[in-house]
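testing teh design pipeline on a random one, pls ignore if ur not involved
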C-alpha cells in the first residue's frame, strides 16, 4: 500500500489489505465506550454506520469490534514498531486485559501514560475525571524508542509544573531545592515521566481548533511520534478523526497513512494538510469511494492509461514504443486499449482490431478469429458506430471486442457545483468593511460542508481559514483594496467543487 495517503473506508477491511510488517508506529484514538449520541461528531453516513455497528451490543461487542482491528494492527507492525492506544476510563481496563495483553503479550507492555488536563467539571459525588490513558506496547523487545527529541527544557516553569504534578504548592522552588532538582536533569532537559501534565487540552478559541470536539493537541502527538519513530518511518492512524496524527507526522517528515469511515474526517484532514503545505512538502493522495469525472477525464493521458489498466486488473505498457499502439495487457496477454474520451467512434474499433491482430500474431504466431476475447477497449463512453461495429465483428468475423466503460471499473461521479453571493457589506471602521457571503452547493449525493479561504493565492493553493462550515454562510472583515476569496464545497461522496471570486473594496464592494 502506498504511503502519504488518506483513505475513506472501514479500517478493518483496509488493514486486511495491507502487507505484513510494513508500519513503524501506530497511534489510535478509537471512539470511547460511552454509548452517547455526542460520539457522532461528523454526522455523515459513514460515521453513523460505524457508530451503529459498534453499539449493536454491550461492552463485549465493543471489545470484539476493537479486538479484530487491533489484531490486524499487530500484524502490519514491524518487529521494531510500537502502538499507542488512547482511551478513557469507560473501557480502559478491558482494552488492556482483553485486547492489548492478549494480542501483544504481557512482555511487550511498555507504559501506561496518563495524560492529565483541566476543564470545568460540575460533579458533587465523586472526583472529576480529568485524564486519559494511553497504552504503549511494542511489537517485540526490539521496539524503537528515543528520548532525543522529547526532553522538556530545564527552566523555572518546568520545575513549577513538576512540583504541581508531585502535589506541592505550585510555587517556584528556590535555593537548595532548585539545585537538587537540577541535578536530576541532564543538560538537554528532562525526559517526561509516564504522567503528562504539561500538554493542555485545546481551548475553544485555540489556534489549532478546527471544530472537532475530541480533537487532540498537536503537542501530544508530537511527543509520541518523536519518541517512537525516525524521519522517513511510516505512521498509521486508523481512526484519523480531526487529522492531528497525520498533520504532525507530515510536519515531522514521517510517511503516513490515515483511515476514517467519515467523509468529513477525511476531507477536513485534507484541508488541514493543504494549509500546512510548504515548498518541500511531500505529495499525498486521497482515496475516496468515488472518483471525480472531471479529474479523471482531463488528467495526464499516460498517467490515466497506466492507472486505469491497473485498476482493471491488467499490466500497463510503460515502453510506449513497440507496443503496436496498445496501452496494456491482461494476465492472459489479451491486449487493452484506453481512450481518455467520451463517445468514441467506429474508427477507434478499426484501429484497435488492426493493432490487436499484429500484437496477437507476435505472441501466438498467428491470429485466431475464434478467441474468447480478442481485446478490451476502455473509455468513458461509446458511440453508436463503435457499438454496432463490435456487434458486427462478433457476428460476422467471430472477433470478440469488449467495450468497458470507466465507471464499470471504478465508481465515477460528477463533482458538486457551487455559487457564491455577497449578501451584505457594512463599513465597521475606517477603510474596513465586514462582508457577508453565502455559498450554495448542489450535488446529487448531498452537501456535507464548506471551507473558506479569504486570502486565496493560486500559487499556494487553497488554504482554509474556515474548515468546517455546515451552513455556507460566513462574514469576513476586509480592508480597502483587491481581494480574492475561494470557497470549497464537499459532498457526501467526498468530491469537491471550488469557486473563486475577486472583490474590489473601496467605499462599495464590487465583484470583479
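output:
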Amino acid at each position: 500500500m502506498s504511503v502519504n495517503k488518506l483513505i475513506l473506508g472501514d479500517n478493518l477491511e483496509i488493514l486486511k489489505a495491507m502487507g505484513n510488517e510494513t508500519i513503524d508506529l501506530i497511534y489510535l484514538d478509537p471512539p470511547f465506550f460511552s454509548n452517547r449520541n455526542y460520539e457522532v461528531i461528523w454526522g455523515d453516513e459513514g460515521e453513523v454506520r460505524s457508530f451503529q455497528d459498534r453499539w449493536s451490543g454491550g461492552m463485549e461487542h465493543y471489545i470484539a469490534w476493537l479486538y479484530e482491528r487491533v489484531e490486524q494492527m499487530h500484524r502490519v507492525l514491524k518487529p521494531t514498531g510500537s502502538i499507542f492506544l488512547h482511551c478513557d476510563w469507560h473501557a480502559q481496563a478491558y482494552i488492556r486485559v482483553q485486547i492489548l495483553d492478549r494480542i501483544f503479550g504481557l512482555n511487550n507492555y511498555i507504559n501506561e501514560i496518563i495524560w492529565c488536563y483541566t476543564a470545568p467539571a460540575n460533579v458533587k459525588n465523586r472526583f472529576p475525571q480529568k485524564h486519559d490513558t494511553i497504552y504503549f506496547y511494542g511489537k517485540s523487545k526490539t521496539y524503537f524508542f528515543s528520548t532525543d527529541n522529547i526532553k522538556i527544557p530545564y527552566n523555572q516553569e518546568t520545575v513549577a509544573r513538576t512540583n504541581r504534578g508531585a502535589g506541592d504548592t505550585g510555587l517556584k522552588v528556590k535555593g537548595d531545592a532548585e539545585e537538587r532538582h537540577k541535578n536530576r536533569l541532564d543538560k538537554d532537559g528532562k525526559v517526561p515521566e509516564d504522567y503528562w501534565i504539561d500538554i493542555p487540552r485545546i481551548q475553544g478559541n485555540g489556534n489549532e481548533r478546527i471544530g472537532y470536539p475530541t480533537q487532540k493537541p498537536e503537542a501530544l502527538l508530537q511527543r509520541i511520534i518523536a519518541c517512537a519513530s525516525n524521519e522517513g518511518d511510516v505512521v498509521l492512524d486508523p481512526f484519523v478523526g480531526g487529522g492531528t496524527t497525520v498533520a504532525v507526522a507530515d510536519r515531522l517528515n514521517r510517511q503516513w497513512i490515515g483511515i476514517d469511515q467519515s467523509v468529513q474526517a477525511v476531507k477536513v484532514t485534507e484541508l488541514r494538510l493543504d494549509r500546512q503545505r510548504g515548498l518541500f512538502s511531500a505529495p499525498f493522495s486521497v482515496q475516496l469511494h468515488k472518483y471525480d469525472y472531471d479529474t479523471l477525464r482531463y488528467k495526464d493521458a499516460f498517467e490515466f492509461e497506466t492507472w486505469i489498466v491497473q485498476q482493471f486488473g491488467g499490466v500497463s505498457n510503460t515502453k510506449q514504443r513497440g507496443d503496436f499502439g496498445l496501452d496494456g495487457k491482461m494476465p492472459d496477454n489479451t491486449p487493452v486499449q484506453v481512450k481518455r474520451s467520451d463517445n468514441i467512434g467506429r474508427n477507434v474499433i478499426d484501429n484497435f482490431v488492426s493493432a490487436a491482430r499484429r500484437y496477437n500474431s507476435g505472441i501466438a504466431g498467428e491470429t485466431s478469429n475464434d478467441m474468447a476475447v480478442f481485446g478490451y477497449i476502455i473509455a468513458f463512453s461509446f458511440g453508436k458506430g463503435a457499438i454496432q461495429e463490435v456487434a458486427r465483428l462478433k457476428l460476422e468475423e467471430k472477433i470478440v471486442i469488449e467495450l468497458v466503460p470507466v465507471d464499470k471499473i471504478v465508481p465515477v461521479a460528477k463533482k458538486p457545483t457551487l455559487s457564491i453571493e455577497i449578501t451584505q457589506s457594512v463599513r465597521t471602521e475606517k477603510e474596513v468593511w465586514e462582508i457577508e457571503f453565502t455559498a450554495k452547493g448542489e450535488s446529487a449525493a448531498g452537501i456535507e460542508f464548506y471551507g473558506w479561504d479569504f486570502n486565496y493565492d493560486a500559487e499556494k493553493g487553497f488554504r482554509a481559514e474556515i474548515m468546517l462550515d455546515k451552513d455556507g454562510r460566513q462574514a469576513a472583515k476586509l480592508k480597502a483594496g483587491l481581494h480574492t476569496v475561494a470557497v470549497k464545497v464537499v459532498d457526501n461522496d467526498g468530491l469537491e467543487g471550488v469557486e473563486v471570486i475577486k472583490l474590489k473594496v473601496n467605499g462599495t464592494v464590487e465583484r470583479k
